[in-house]
Amino acid sequence: MRIKLVGLFCTLCFCFASTVNTSEGLIPLDAVGLDSIIKEQNNIVLINFWATWCRPCLEEIPILMKLEKELKESGFKLVPISLDEPESADILVNPFIQKWFPDFSSYLSVERDMDSMVSVVDTAWNEILPTSYLLNKNGTVVHRIQGSYSSEEFSTMILPLIE
Amino acid sequence: MKHITTRFCYLSIIFISLLVIATVTLSSGHPISEKGRRSISPEIAVGLDGALNVIWIDKGLAVNRPPPKPHKPGEHSHRSATDLYFSRSEDRAKTWSKPVKINDQPGEIWGFSVSKPVIEVSPNGTIHVFYPANARSEATGLDVVNARYSHSRDNGKSFSPPITINRPVTQDREDLLGQGLTMSNSFGTMGVAPNGTVFTAWQNIVNMKDAIDGADGMMAISTDDGESFSTERAVIPGSEVCPCCQFTLAFENESVYMGFRKIFADGRDSVVAKSIDGGETFTIDGRLDLAPWKINGCPLKPTELGVNGSNLYAVTYTAGEDPAGLYVTASKDGGKTFSGKNQVHPEAAYSDAASLTVDDMGNVRIVWHAKINGPRRLFTSVSLDEGKSFSPPMEMPTPDGKSQFPATAVGIDGTVYVTWEHENEEVFITSLPSMISIVSN
């Protein structure tokens, strides 16, 4: 599975190299790519949509990074996706991640608008950030989480799926 | 008996109107923006001469667009690399002038669909434009967002060099914004009162204590048709303003109404502030009659206003109500209290981005985007009884694909003009027939 995902990422990086320069911390992703990630995963997944201009989103990032580290061995995977402008990868998002969250790795949506990307998970998304979706191992959304939440609140939702 | 007769009369008018609306062949609209360019977030204003004035954000070429280069220290910030364009129609949207770029600093526009640049027209025909812009603070040398203004006195053939309305930025709040931006004067709006006074309002985050705190509501006014503006003042002080929901303005005689989302202990909810002293002071009376929406995030939802006499209408998205979606409510006492909420689009999986107009007869029209079983499409609904009831949502016959973020304005004959962002980032326009002519026929 990991090899498949690496292959998918490489393909996506190649496809979008002309519009978005990639770096270790930021991986371009389109709606088709997100759909593939959802279909091919075999983990409990938290898809977290964020943006550099959304301060409550930024409050969550350290919490989510810590949760992924703690629960990784239990089959939990974090899939963060930045909804910043794709063109701002090099001038904004990459420098931002390097400055504030150097250990954070995120996808960057290359779709033209936010809804085109989030609709892969939620066709009725209401354009609120942060929005996260907790998926079970079957890829079914079991929680839509809007606004920033504490580590304990996330754990309350995630742990029952692990157990 | 009188009550029953009146009610029957209202219902008859609504029924007849709906029949007429349903049979009127509506145009599916046509593009205004240049093909091959990425154009989003339109706004529209109609002057007393009946001409249509539209602005939109231009994101450059749709294909083969060179990526923006990182700026060097001391160089202007091009965070968004977008421009602001203007076009005008003097023949009821049949033909349009060649688009004119308004901003003088290339790529300076910071706005997007929920922090849109705004256009208004004075009674004397001056076209006013207000927008958020990337800039670099001279005091700190750091990147900021400024509130900028420009006008045209030749029907949009040319625009004055834009001016910055907010005070020069001297503070560094990157700790709060955290993205290289150190101050923000954004999510603003502008309105022109019937006497020609130009009001600009925006949100300043300098006094925010932390991420869940609010911004201050700032205002600057021009009484000389945009030649100069008063020094900015905090008219909604105390960090009460939810800092990511765009302000809105409406006017009726001497009253100035400002819609925004206030941070309450139990939610971030829509309120209306009112000034009866020309914008010197505002009082916040009217919390909309909606269930509290508790969210620690960025709602990105403005509170659209329309006014006719002492009737004030407000429409906004809320997830406090169940089901979530657009709700419209009305005040009969000039914004002090609101009651009588109506869910705008119960059948929609998602409804948002409402634009509201009130014509000279007091008819209220809402246009919004919603999802049923596919992409976002535009819908409309009208009220002929001062907001008590609204017609069922009618999908507008826009071209196939995604239609979103409509903006509306009433023409001099009551026609409602609708401009929106269409699939593949083009700006389109169409019109809805005047409710005045429909009712009188």
Task: Identify the notable features of this structure and list them briefly.
A: 163 residues, alpha/beta, Glutaredoxin, 6 helices, disordered N terminus, B: 441 residues, mainly beta, 8-stranded mixed beta sheet
Assign the CATH topology of chain A: Glutaredoxin
Order of helices and strands of chain A: HEHEHEHEHEEH
Overall shape of chain B: it is: globular
| Structural class designation of chain A | alpha/beta
Overall residue-averaged pLDDT value of chain A:
85
How much of the sequence lies in strands of chain B comes to: 35-45%
Count of individual beta strands of chain B: 28
The major pleated sheet of chain B works out as:
8 strands, mixed
**Distance from first to last alpha carbon of chain A:** 22 Å
Helix tally of chain B?
A: 3
The rounded distance between the terminal residues' Cα atoms of chain B is 27 Å
Could you give a short description of this structure?
By secondary structure, chain A is α/β, with parallel strands linked by helices. Chain A has helices at residues 2-15, 31-40, 55-71, 89-100, 114-118, 151-162, and strands spanning 26-29, 44-50, 76-82, 106-109, 131-135, 141-146.
Give a verbal description of the structure.
The complex is a heterodimer of chains A (163) and B (441). Chain A has 163 residues and is α/β, with parallel strands linked by helices. Chain A is built from 6 helices and 6 strands. In chain A, helix 1 (2-15) runs antiparallel to helix 2 (31-40). Chain A is globular. The two termini of chain A are 22 Å apart. Mean pLDDT of chain A is 85; it is low at 1-22. Chain B has a domain at 36-190 and 209-239. In chain B, 7% of the residues lie in helices and 44% in strands. In chain B, a hairpin with a 7-residue loop joins strand 20 (325-331) and strand 21 (339-343). Chain B is globular and about 55 Å long. In chain B, 55% of the residues are buried. Residues 72-78 of chain B have low confidence and may be disordered. The chains are: A alpha/beta (163), B mainly beta (441). Chains A and B meet through helix 3 and helix 4 of A and loops of B.
